[in-house]
Structure formats: structure tokens, C-alpha cells
Amino acid sequence: MRACHYLDVFDAIVAENGALLYTPRPPTERPLASPPPPDFAATLMERGVTPLSCGRIVLATWQPHEQVVLDVIREMGLELEVIFNKGAVMVLPSGINKASGLKAALAELGIPAQQVVSVGDAENDHSLLEACGIGVAVGNAVPALKRRADLVLTKVRGEGVIELCDAVLANDLAGTERVTPMRLSPTGVR
């Protein structure tokens, strides 16, 4: 959890694309899946997949290495999935995504998904936007995510997140014209 210096302001953090749940008080990491076997990363590196980032559970590289990654998964007989994050190629355990991680966090916190606003920009954010009461895409989001979002912001990256926070604080998104209808019932259940 080196990416943020202010972890203690959060109740829970869904990390590694949904594979790891971190709670800052007390500091606790809970893996939501098992990591791939160690020889998986070694085999990828032997096949020239660089750079290769290895988290606690998720591995990531960049295009055009996706075919080599898929070949190694198949050859080793592993149940892993490849998902894209713009130019990044991410390898996750089957069934793990940002939505599955969010659901685990919300269950611990006792918060219904209907009360959650999510924000994303890439292919790996589809499940997250779908799992929340309101799914938001920042201005630089991939076109497919913008089409799926309830709200598309004008600003990009972090400035888009600030735009969203300002709108929530100003009027709780009242009067926001949605791109698609709400996907969850008032209880947060599909």
C-alpha cells in the first residue's frame, strides 16, 4: 500500500484490481484470491515479457505481450484471466475484478451497492461501474466505458475525480442527467 500516504482516511481499500482488500484501522490485508504459482512469473520473464509487475496476487505487463501471457496460461493449465487497462495487460485469478473486490468491502462495511458512486476510465472498470448505484466515467475514459456510464465527466484523470467530488458535495448529483438508467434496485440488489 505504498501508493498513497493517507490510507487512514479510508474505511477500506480495494487493491490489485479487486484481488486484495486492505483496511487501515487496524492495518490488515485480506487476499480475495490466491496468487498464481511462482513459476508463472518466471516463465513469463523467460519468454521476454518485460516489464512485468508482480503484486501480491495480480501480475501486469504491457501490450503487445498479451498473446505470450495467454499462451503461458494455456500451457501451464492455469485458471487465470487477462484484462486490459488501456495499454496495460493484467493477469487476475478467475472471477476476480473490481466489482468482486468492492462487494467484499461493502459486505464488511455494511453498505448497500446502491449507495456507492464509482469512477473509472478503462476496460477493467466495466464491472465496477455496473456494480454500483451510479457509475461514472472520467473524460478520458475509453469509449465503451463512457457508453456504459450513468454520468460522463468533462474533465480527465484526477481532475475528473475532483469534478465528481465537487458535484457530490455541491448537490449530491441532484439534477444529473444520466446516460443510462440505474441498474440496481433501491435495496442494492439486482
From TrEMBL:
Organism: Labilithrix luteola
Endpoints of the signal sequence: none
One CC-aspect GO term: cytosol
Keywords: Hydrolase
SUPFAM superfamilies in the cross-refs: HAD-like (SSF56784)
Domain of life: Bacteria
Alphabetized GO MF terms: magnesium ion binding; phosphatase activity
Xref: PANTHER family: HAD SUPERFAMILY HYDROLASE-LIKE, TYPE 3 (PTHR10000:SF8), PHOSPHOSERINE PHOSPHATASE (PTHR10000)
Protein name: Hydrolase (HAD superfamily)
